[in-house]
Amino acid sequence: MRARDLLADFPVVGLDSPVIDVARLLADQDLPGLIVIGDDGTPFTILPGTQVLRLAVPGYCVDDPALARVVDEAHADAFLRALDGRTVRDALPEQPRELPVTDPGATVLELAALMARTRSPLVAVVDDGRLLGAVTLQALLDRMLAA
């Protein structure tokens, strides 16, 4: 089984897309993350949903989870408001990581290794500089466990 056999159309966003819209897209479509494309239309990075949350969660709560407990419920429920006015570019990690991109001929083991190494729930599949779609962790596991 190859990447081309697990390929699915996948939404993409640009670097200047509003991150609150990205959060809605992730929630509405039950996505683990999104492919971020650069100005040239090729994959720039993968944005996991957890990175969107990291942008919204106050830094002091990330650094010391006990502090999250002292925030009252009304304010805790509204933390996503911190995403207003922010872009995908703001949500990206400071240190670029290996880009989880492969070609349509990659084997399931290659896909699994790439996902594990990059800690990415999806891999962009590119052929001749053109984005074909993505392979998700769910699709990979579903197919492998069914075999």
How would you sum up this structure, described in words?
It is a single chain. This protein starts with a helix and ends with a helix. It has a single domain (3-146), classed as CBS-domain (Roll), CATH 3.10.580.10. The model has no long low-confidence stretch (mean pLDDT 87). Strands 1-2-3 form a 3-stranded mixed β-sheet. Strands 4-5-6 form a 3-stranded mixed β-sheet. The chain has 9 helices and 6 strands; from the N terminus they run αβαββαααααβαββα. With 147 residues, the protein is α/β, with parallel strands linked by helices. Strand 2 and strand 3 form a beta hairpin. It comes from Sphaerisporangium siamense. Residues 95-147 form the CBS domain. This is CBS domain-containing protein. Keywords: CBS domain.
Q: Give the CATH topology.
A: CBS-domain
CATH architecture: Roll
Q: Bin the helical content.
A: 40-55%
**DSSP E strands, number:** 6
